[in-house]
Amino acid sequence: MAWGMKDIGEQRVRFVVAVSLREKPLAQLCREFEISRPTGYVWIKRYREQGIAGLEEHSRRPRHSPRQTAEALEQRVIQMRSRWPDWGARKIGKKLEEAGVKLPTSTVHRIFLRHNLVREHDRIPAAVKRFEREAPNQLWQMDFKGPKGWHEPVGPLSVLDDHSRYVTALERTGSTQAKGVQEALEKAFCECGVPEEMLMDHGTPWCNGQGYRGWTKLTVWLMNQDIELHWSGLRHPQTQGKVERFHGSMVAALLRRGAPRGEHRQAWLDQFRYEHNYLRPHEALKMKTPAQLWQKSGREYQLRPAQWIYPSGTEVAEVDRSGSSRIDGRRWYLTQTLVDQLVGVTAVGPRFLVHYRRTLIAEIDPLKSRSTAVDRD
What we know:
This protein folds into three domains: 71-122, no CATH class; 139-293, Nucleotidyltransferase, domain 5; 315-373, no CATH class. Helices cover 33% and strands 16% of the residues. The chain contains eleven helices and twelve strands. The chain has helices at residues 8-21, 26-32, 37-50, 71-83, 89-98, 105-114, 178-192, 217-223, 241-257, 265-279, 290-293, and strands spanning 139-144, 157-161, 167-171, 197-200, 228-231, 315-318, 324-327, 330-333, 342-348, 351-356, 359-365, 370-373. Strands 3-2-1-4-5 form a five-stranded mixed β-sheet, with helices on both faces. Strands 6-9-10-11-12 form a five-stranded antiparallel β-sheet, with helices on one face. Strand 9 (342-348) and strand 10 (351-356) form a beta hairpin. Helix 1 (8-21) crosses helix 3. It is globular. The relative contact order is 0.11.
C-alpha cells in the first residue's frame, strides 16, 4: 500500500525507502518517481550521510548577489522602518520615492526580511486565488462558531463540504470536549458518509499545541477513518473561509430572528441547516442550493476500522502506555497520542523510519542514540 505522501521531501523519503527494500531495480524506481538516475543517486547519498535532514530542499539562493541593494540605500530603508515600525513596504517605498529614491515594493520587503524587521504574524501569505475542491466530500471544513448571538460560552459545531457548501453537521455540543465532537462527527459520518480530507484550525479538541504535530486522540480517531487532516494557518481564518462565511450568515439570522433558548436550540440549528442546504440559493453556487451540488460520500463510516496494512518489508510495532515502541532491541519514545496503536518501522541503512499509517512520524538513528520527530506540516 502506498504511503500517500505528496510533498517533495516526502517523495524523497518514499524513494529511499523503496531503494532500501530492493523490490525493484534502481532504474525502474527512478522512472516511477519521475526523476533521473543521477538525481536518485544524490538522494540516496544525502540520506546515507545526513538522514532525513539531507532530503530537505536546499536553498537555491546564490552565494553571491552582485545586484543586491547598495548598503547605504539598504540602511536608509532600515532607518525609515525603525521610525515607522507599523508601516509596510508600500508606505516606506512611497516615502522613499518622495525623497527621490525609487525602489520596488518587493525590494523594500526583502530588505525587511533580511534584517528580521517583519513580525512573525505578518509573514502569513495572503490568499491569491479562490480555493475550492472539485467534487463533494473531497474536503470538509470544521470549526466552532463563536458565542456571538448564541448566548453560550461555546457556539455550535459546524462541518461544511468545501465544494458544495453543504452543511454535514451543525450540533450544539455545549463545550469543546472531544467526546461531544466525536459523537457529532459519528452522526455526520453515518448520515453523509466519510470525507477524504478535513480542514480545521489549531483549536481544541482537534489540536494540542503541546503534543506531537498537534495530534490529539480525536485526530488519531479521524486518521483511523483514513481521513487526511489539514490545519489552517495560524491567525489566518481565510483558510476556512466557507465555514466562517456560514457562521456570518448564522449570526445575521440570530440577530434578526432572535436566538433560541434552552431545549429549543438544537431544533433551531436543525431548521437552519435544512434551510441552508435545501432552500437558500447561494450566489457563489450560481444561485443553486448546496443540496443540488452535494451527494453522499461513498466512503462508509467504520465503527471498528480495519487494521492498517503496512508495505512489505516493514515491521509492525505497538506503541505502549508510555508512548514508546521497541525498535532494534531498544525502547524509543514516539508520542503519547499513539498509545495502543501500531506503527510501521522500515530499516533504511543504519537508520529506521517510523510511520503511523500514511504519515512519517520519526527517524531513529541507533548509532547516535537519537530519535528525531519528523514534522512535514
